[in-house]
Design goal:
The complex is a heterodimer.
Chain A (H helix, E strand, L loop, with lengths): L2 H34 L3 H6 L8 E10 L11 E3 L2 E3 L1 H6 L1 E2 L5 E5 L6 E10 L7 H8 L2 E5 L5 E5 L3 H32 L5 H11 L5 H14 L5 H24 L4 H9 L4 H12 L1 H17 L2 H7 L8 H11 L4 H36 L1
Antiparallel strand pairs in A: 1-6, 2-3, 4-5, 5-6, 7-8
Chain B lengths: L17 H28 L4 H28 L3 H34 L13 H8 L1 H34 L3 H9 L6 H12 L11 H8 L15 H27 L3 H9 L4 H12 L1 H16 L3 H6 L9 H11 L3 H29 L3
Classes of the chains: A alpha+beta, B mainly alpha.
């Protein structure tokens, strides 16, 4: 084997395995995306993959049930012979057509089906509409009756999520950056022990804090306010933020800071004018993680936001749709996809910073 | 600040005198405080349109935090240089330490305290809750599940993350592949629950299957299965663990990818020139080089999986013996209202994490030198 074939084989192997993993990772999301454009009935009676061309039994006609057929015994209809139970499962006649009994024993009819190429391409935007606007909409149930339901006002929850997520991302980063600078470049008594405490708290499970903090919030009448949720996310995100930012900020070249001190700059000025701009990649990369975690958080919201509908965030609304009416999958799909959009946008727009920023932090850390 | 503009005439000059500075030092924090308080009242009580509240809230929250730093720094810098030098570090580190103390350090101690009392914290019961929890047969499967989560969730997340990072590094489709693997990170656990319903959903054998796994399973001639529910425990937990592996691999991949890119190219080149094959390069050069990152990623993923909550709550609600420590804690404190037992469960979770913590502090002590 010469070098070129070996290289080619290597590339095929690498891309093949990578492609396979990517495909596995994509399938669930593709299912969600496709389902979100299908209507209520379709979502519940056929798999999302039926939108792809496939061979299936398609109805091509009906045959009369002979008046003298013995509905409790063996019947011969359209060339096939069997009992009612067998017909309901579908009997394949000698000519390749399939005969299926639809409906009950007394009033049913028999459909003739043939294997054909088909694709279930009945797409709709209705799910997104009803989830986003909370408008009332009519649905026709399979039995023909019409029911009026109110959609979910996901727009409101989206705004709430935004109100929760943006400060809950920026505030811990701000506080952690100050602390990281303090630990890295300032001399004060207790520096080492305080830093060890920060690292130790990195692994405290946040479940431990829920009950005590809830009591504090109730005592302070803070529960259900945005401030309460921001503070909670700040507290729970701080150890990791401080630790990662410390790793980055402490690695910045000492000369830059020294020359700034000689020019008479104070710590605060150096921090605002020098450290913050230099740390943008690290700040941005942690910002993405923290934003994703806060945006996708359910537990903290569940406990500190509570059940008040006007302050509920998206994950709560989604969980509620799951819990209260597990059958409304068509709404869930649209809701779940909407809740993904903003984090995906944030990820794609900051991806550049992301990899570069973590490079500096993680290699040392 | 007014004090800086010495050229401004008359009234403003007063602020540069001793009395004026003292007055300013009192007025500025007061005004800041009143302003922030008004913002809080507005956010709590206002009926303004939602988008307006959103803007005010974000500006108030983010701006308020920054403003507090500016104001307190300004206050500190009014003092003599000696005091500035002494106090400023605490201005930088203090807020973080205060919030950490309030939200994590004190709760740990308080949970420990509550765990020694009865369900509504009125009677001291000593270690009774701990015996109750440890001997409760229901808690046994909870601990077993958490162990499964930790071992399998962590192992596969780390392995897949490393595999993708290494492969993507050699592929011309690196960006798109990494984006695909990372995408589930953008999905909430609740959303992931919905997504995976389209994989795990079960219909009775006469209807068409709408869950992909059952569709394949039935097409192979088997009976449809309720994967997350009725499969014999603990095997149903594995179907939940798969979801979390799918969600978290992106996190591991990003960190590994960054670390791999940090390995100096010359090192790899030198090894290739010396005739090392790709396996040797991977195991003898890459792995040792990124060992620090492997430890970091493994630690954080262990902590994630030990704390796992959302996926279980959304997929099964902790029924069918899929409950884990966090869901059990939630059930005890918010459904059963037994705060003593709930606190005990939380403390046991904390104890489970202590070895990880000690290991990390040790490696921190090895790495960091002031």
């Amino acid at each position: 084997m010469d070098n070129r074939t070996r290289k080619l084989l290597g590339a095929i192997f690498v891309n093949g395995v990578l492609g396979l993993i990517c495909l596995l990772w994509l399938i669930p999301t593709i299912g969600l995306l496709i389902s979100s454009f299908r209507n209520r009935t379709d979502v519940q009676v056929s798999g999302w993959w039926t939108v792809l061309p496939h061979r299936a039994w398609v109805k091509t006609g009906e045959v009369e049930i002979p008046a003298d057929a013995d509905r409790n015994g063996v019947m011969t209809i359209g060339g096939a012979t069997g009992t009612f139970e067998e017909f309901r499962e579908g009997i394949t006649a000698p000519d390749g057509r399939r005969l299926t009994w639809v409906g009950n024993r007394r009033l049913g009819r028999v459909e003739v089906q043939e294997q054909q190429w088909t694709a279930n391409t009945n797409f709709t935007l209705e799910n997104y509409e009803s989830v986003l606007t909370g408008k009332e909409y009519e649905i026709t149930l399979p039995d023909g009756s019409v029911q009026i339901q109110r959609g979910d006002d996901m727009g409101n929850a989206f705004l709430n999520s935004l109100i929760v997520a943006v400060p809950s991302t920026v505030i811990p980063i701000l506080i952690a950056a100050f602390a990281a600078y303090g630990f890295a470049w300032m001399n004060f008594p207790g520096r080492r022990i305080l830093f060890i405490i920060v690292v130790a708290l990195l692994v405290v499970p946040l479940q431990i804090a829920l009950v005590p903090i809830l009591r504090d919030y109730v005592a302070l009448d803070l529960n259900g306010t945005f401030l309460a949720v921001w503070l909670a996310h700040t507290g729970f995100g701080l150890p990791l933020a401080t630790y990662l930012l410390y790793n980055y900020i402490s690695q910045l070249p000492r000369d830059i800071l020294e020359s700034a001190f000689i020019d008479g700059a104070s710590h605060f000025t150096i921090f605002m004018r020098l450290i913050i701009p230099l740390s943008v990649p690290a700040l941005a990369s942690f910002a993405i993680f923290q934003f994703l975690w806060v945006w996708n958080d359910y537990l903290v919201a569940l406990i500190f936001v509570g059940a008040k509908p006007d302050v509920q965030v998206m994950t709560q609304r989604l969980a509620e749709i799951v819990g209260s009416r597990g059958s409304d999958w068509h709404l869930l799909t649209a809701g779940a996809f909407i809740s993904m959009l903003l984090p995906l946008t944030v990820f794609f727009s900051l991806q550049r910073f992301f990899v570069r920023g973590l490079l500096a932090g993680s290699v040392k850390g | 600040m007014a004090t800086a503009r010495s050229s401004t005439p008359s009234a403003l000059d007063w602020f540069t005198t001793g009395m004026g500075r003292l007055a300013l030092a009192l007025i500025v924090p007061l005004v800041t405080f009143i302003g922030l308080w008004q913002g809080f009242i507005f956010l709590r009580d206002s009926n303004a349109p939602k988008w307006f509240v959103a803007i005010v809230a974000i500006v108030w929250g983010v701006g308020g935090a920054a403003l507090l730093y500016f104001v307190s720094n300004w206050l500190v810098e009014q003092l003599s240089p000696e005091w500035v030098r002494r106090l400023q570090p605490f201005l930088f580190v203090g807020p973080a330490m205060m919030i950490l103390t309030w939200f994590l350090a004190l709760p740990t101690l308080r949970t420990l305290y509550i765990s020694l009392f009865n369900f509504d914290s009125t009677v001291f019961v000593g270690l009774e809750n701990y015996f109750k929890v440890i001997t409760d047969p229901n808690m046994l499967y909870v601990f077993r599940n958490n162990l499964l989560w930790m071992v399998f969730g962590t192992t596969f997340t780390v392995i897949f993350g490393l595999l993708v990072a290494v492969l993507a590094d050699r592929s011309q489709f690196e960006t798109i592949a990494k984006a695909i693997i990372f995408m589930p990170m953008a999905i909430s656990f609740v959303g992931a629950g919905v997504i995976w319903n389209f994989i795990y959903e079960v219909k009775d054998r006469n209807s068409e299957q709408i869950g992909l796994l059952n569709a394949i399973w039935v097409a192979l001639g088997n009976e449809p299965q309720a994967w997350t529910a009725l499969i014999a425990p603990p095997f149903n937990s594995f179907f939940l663990i798969v979801i979390v592996i799918w969600l978290q691999t992106g996190y591991a991949m990003v960190l590994f990818s960054a670390a791999i890119k940090g390995i100096p190219g010359e090192v790899l080149e030198a090894a290739r020139v010396d005739g090392a094959n790709e396996w040797q390069i991977f195991f003898q050069i890459m792995i040792p080089q990124i060992m620090g990152t492997i430890i970091t990623v493994t630690t954080t993923v262990i902590i994630f999986t030990l704390k796992i909550f959302d996926v279980v709550i959304v997929m099964t609600g902790g029924q069918f013996e899929t409950s884990v420590i966090a869901t059990e804690f939630y059930r005890q404190s918010f459904t059963n209202r037994d705060f003593g037992v709930a606190a005990t469960i939380a403390i046991i979770l904390f104890i489970a994490v202590v070895p990880v913590m000690i290991y990390n502090l040790r490696s921190f002590n090895e790495r960091e030198a002031f």
